[in-house]
User: What shape does this take?
Amino acid sequence: MLVTSLLLGVIGLGGLAFIFLTTEPTLGPRWLFFFFLTITGAGIALPVVYLIHRRTARQYVSAKVIIREAIMFGVFLDLLAWLQIGRIASNLIAIILAGGLVFLEIFLRMAEKATFKPDEYEDE
Assistant: This one.
């Protein structure tokens, strides 16, 4: 997780620095900004999410769940930046978006628990 986090953080921050220092805010660099913001947010959130699950989870949490939650944080940052362009972002909207992403993660976890895994119930 640490290597992945560092790789994502370096690529994302390097891309953001490149965009801020060398481009004008036209359509292409704007989409690159959102791409690199997602990568940076996921890289920053990855060790935090890992430590939270390491401390609080009662059962083993797979790596793909941790990465998914870190990517959701990056998407959350993208949504806030997108809404800020139109001057729509506020504290209430940020809380509503965060709550929606938390509910999405809860529903995804419920769906993962409800899936049938045939190797667990083999005939003895």
About this structure: DSSP finds four helices and no strands in the chain.
